[in-house]
Amino acid sequence: MSDTAKPLVGFIGLGTMGGPMASHLLKAGHRLVVHDVRVEVAAEHLKAGATWADTPRALAQQCDVMFTCLPNLPAIEKVALGSDGLIAGIRAGSAYFEMSTNSPELVKRLHKAFAERDASMLDAPISGGAPGARRGRLSAYVGGDKAVYQRFESVIRAMCDRPVHIGPVGSGLITKLVHNCASQGIQAAIVEAFVMGVKAGAEPLALWEGIRQGASGRRRVFDGLIDQFLPGQYDTVQSALRIVEKDMMTATALAREVGAPMRIANLALADITEAMNRGWAERDSRSVMLLPQERIGVHIAVDPSGVRDVLARDPAAPTDTRYGEK
Question: Which entry of 176, 199, 246, 326 is annotated as an active-site residue?
């Protein structure tokens, strides 16, 4: 790749998150090679000018930089290190950004394996959910060689409006785990208090509008209630519960490894485990918010038009991945 030419980009994993991200790369004018276990999900990308690779190995043989967005650790390991994986076709000097929520141990193994091939591996997990992916409003927490990050930062910015280089390899993943772990703890506390207020007699929409005006509310802490909780709709999936369980299991495992007590996180994980045991793995991750309602004996289902009216009077934060200004 010359200094002036755009790199040839490879993208593997065209699911709920990866599909829109790959589309943004094409819209930004990047030359793109794609792969997925289901060729049919690439139809729109191929129509828009992407090239198909039959295997991760074939993709790596062509590309200057590769991105993967995959559902679980076995998929990451197979795509990266399998006999037909990226490692089998990687070229010296190229770079690989793993954008899933990984594990610290696997990140280290990937980094070592690719370094032995004179290639760079960086962990770059993303945050912003499916709506953020569609709108190009994602964060990417990048751990690894800063010069490599800077070399391909323009490619990342085509998909993610808020990429941040965190530090050495593994630090991007740590940041994502901290973010998700804190988010689940905050969500659990907010929902528990909210359903108490409804049980005590407050009308849900008015209660939500009111708490948005307090000190925490003006920082838009409570806008996480908008999507599934207030309308009571948990089967339009933005992020499946099983994905959040995986992230929380990884986060609490890391905490045990470093000797950090995680009382609130473990309580949040206990609710997630209960929801999983109910058979809710494929429901939206916020289905766990039904449990406090059941325990206290309330059911919250606000007309979505009422939520839109509140947002029209008092908008979401401009940086909100779902409702912020484009």
Answer: 176
238: confidence class by pLDDT, cuts 50, 70, 90:
confident
Residues 232 and 226: their CA atoms lie apart, in Å, by 10
**HEC secondary structure over 55-123:** CHHHHHHHCCEEEECCCCHHHHHHHHHCCCCHHHHCCCCCEEEECCCCCHHHHHHHHHHHHCCCCEEEE
pTM, full prediction: 0.91
Residue 313 contacts by C-beta under 8 Å, 6 or more apart in sequence? none
Q: What crossing angle do the helices spanning 241-258 and 263-277 adopt, rounded to 10°?
A: 150
Please check the confidence at residue 326 and state whether its pLDDT lies above 90: no
Local structure of 163: helix, strand or coil: strand
Q: Which of helix, strand or coil describes residue 212? A: coil
8-168 falls under which CATH superfamily? NAD(P)-binding Rossmann-like Domain (3.40.50.720)
Rounded to an integer, what distance in angstroms lies between the CA atom of residue 189 and that of residue 194?
9
What kind of architecture, by CATH, is found in domain 175-313? Orthogonal Bundle (1.10)
Given a contact cutoff of 8 angstroms between Cβ atoms, the answer to whether 176 and 143 are in contact is no
Q: State yes or no: is 176 an active-site residue.
A: yes
**Checking phi first, is residue 34 left (phi over 0); if not, alpha (psi -120 to 50) or beta?**
beta
